[in-house]
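Section: Multi-chain targets

For targets with more than one molecule, the full set of components is provided together so that the structure can be written out for the assembly as a whole rather than chain by chain. Components appear in the order listed by the source. The example entry contains two components.
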Amino acid sequence: MANKKNDSLIVLAETIADNKFITGDRLVEIGISGPTLEASLSSIAMAQAELGHARLMYKWSNELQGLNASKMEVKEQTGKAFPALVNASNWLSLIAGLYANNQAVDLVIKAILKAEPPNLPTPFNKMIREQQEHLLYAKSWCKQLLRDRGAVPRVFKQHLEKAVAEVEQWLVKVEKDPQLQSEAIILNNSNLVKTFKSEIEQLTNFEEVQHV
Amino acid sequence: MKTMETEKYWEALTEVMDPEFPISVVDMGLIYDITKIGDDTIAVKMTYTSTGCGCMQWIENDIRERLLKEEGIRDVEIHVVWDPPWTVSNLSEKGKLKLKTWGVSS
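Its structure, encoded as tokens over all components, is:
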């Protein structure tokens, strides 16, 4: 299966894997001193799953490259993780990165599953289910931080905007990638960017929606 | 799928316990299929309860070790799959009862 045709797909797989890898790492590093005991426990549990997702995606990438996936050893990311996530150093930037990244990955993976590309193994069902729980958790924290007191909402919004901007850039590339489109891995009408923007808008404007 | 030929291997794997609960990997519903390849190789298709399971290598080693004790078996191939994903409905009735005894709802 390793050929030029897979180049974009390998980059996509590694981007998701790297971000999951870094998310797992950050959830442990920052999450251990989360704002509450519940937050710390949840962070560690999610870290384990995020690292599991990273392992799954690296394995998928190796298979696409025709490498022996069972002999895989991951010691560091390939350099495709988003800077906002890599540099997350506090609970606000961690939650912003966790939400933005998982929301985008959710859209991309679902778009691939929807496209049903022929001859492409798509072992993502378990990951999608687990990821839904992380998304729900992150989204709920986003809402809590956006309606917190003092400087928290403003600073969190800055972190969120930064994380969202990086993720959106990636989604634009994925959506417009000629190779992914010609191989029918991402369909023309996938609307990744539009859907992502709409999700972010719903999240950040939740107060207005609640008051309607 | 259990066949006459593979039944004894399914039985053998009821002796391999999940490291977190004293329930066999068969009763946990982790084993999807066992096939015999040639005269001396067994292929096991299996899954885990979570993609982040920290005991994967441990469980695979236990499975391999147990099946290699079977007469004439020299190699065990383990294929991990995520479709269909594991859910509590994979648990056997025996597994559910054991979990209940341990105070875990399924």
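Strands of chain B lie at 31-37, 41-46, 75-80.
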